[in-house]
Write a structure and sequence with these properties.
With about 50 residues, the chain is mainly alpha-helical. The chain has one domain. It is built from two helices and no strands. Helix 1 runs antiparallel to helix 2. The longest helix is centred in the last third of the chain and has 24 residues. The chain is flat, with a radius of gyration of 12 Å. It starts with 9 loop residues before the first helix and ends with a helix.
């Protein structure tokens, strides 16, 4: 992932890095990566709603 894709938000940047891991895994493992990314982004958005 290139630097211009980073958000500056550490939690989101971590998730984007995790998403980049999907390129190096098989189809079955991609589902796990996508589910993890979705859950983490949903949690981040929920936390923003509570602020």
């Amino acid at each position: 992932m290139s630097e211009e894709q980073w958000t500056g938000e550490p939690e989101v940047d971590e998730v984007l890095a995790r998403l980049g891991e999907a390129d190096g895994v098989g189809t079955g493992e991609r589902v796990e990566v996508y589910e993890d990314v979705h859950a983490r982004l949903a949690a981040t958005l929920a936390a923003l709603d509570r602020e």
